[in-house]
Design a protein that fits this description.
This protein has about 60 residues and is mostly helical. It is about 25% helix and about 0% strand. The chain has one helix at about 45-60. The chain starts with about 45 loop residues before the first helix and ends with a helix.
C-alpha cells in the first residue's frame, strides 16, 4: 500500500483531522448516510475493539 486512504467525515469535523499531512475536500451531491465501521482483515486492535463496543452501546440505547 502506498499510504493513501479515504475517509468520509462530517464537515464540522474536517478541521479536527487536518494534521500530519491529512487533506480534506468537500463532497457534494450526496445524501446524508449511515456510518459503517470496518477494520483490517487480520483483526482490530484494542482501540478499535473498544470503539466498536461503544458504537454498539450507543445504537442499542437509541433503539
Amino acid at each position: 500500500m502506498d499510504g493513501r486512504r479515504v475517509c468520509l467525515v462530517a464537515a464540522g469535523n474536517a478541521p479536527l483531522v487536518t494534521l500530519g499531512g491529512v487533506v480534506t475536500r468537500p463532497v457534494r451531491g450526496i445524501e446524508p448516510s449511515r456510518l459503517a465501521l470496518a477494520w483490517r482483515a487480520d483483526g482490530p486492535g484494542p482501540l478499535v475493539t473498544a470503539y466498536a463496543r461503544a458504537c454498539r452501546q450507543v445504537v442499542a440505547a437509541g433503539s
